[in-house]
Amino acid sequence: METVPVNCNNCGAPLEVAAGANYATCGHCGARLAVKRTGSAASTEVLEKLDRTTEQIAGHLAELTRQKEVERVDREWEREQASYLITGKHGSRTLPTQRAGVVIALVMGGFGLIWTAFAASFAPFPFPLFGLLFVGFAVYAGLSQVKSAGKLAEAEARYHQRRREAMRKDPPPPPG
Ligand SMILES: [Zn+2]
Q: For position 30, what pLDDT does the model report?
């Protein structure tokens, strides 16, 4: 078969096209080409360059949309996380942890018990009750924080799941 040497108009690679062919596909970059002849010289024109550009723009848009979605999920999580913040005595804000909850229940509850025993041995009747109230409050506050920390951990797992889904959405077309 007689062939004509041409260069791909998209990537410049040398190609051999059949003498009578009007169309060819570049074996190097895959571009669809129209073969143009001027006298004995042949050249190529890219047929699908516009389509490729359109594909690339669509790819960039999908990427932007995905980034926006991930940012939205992150902002939502920041707000959700803020709703769990505990304001401490000195205005410091911390997230609940199970460890802190247990420490509050044990240390403050233990302190309350010692105080109650002390009051019972020295003070008349109503005073030991205040100690027991304090113990009850400490245990309640500690367990509340343990429960809150559990909910926070679940919320965080949901956030990571949402974020993974947002990043997977509309995978970008292969490059090129
Ligand atoms: Zn090419």
A: 83
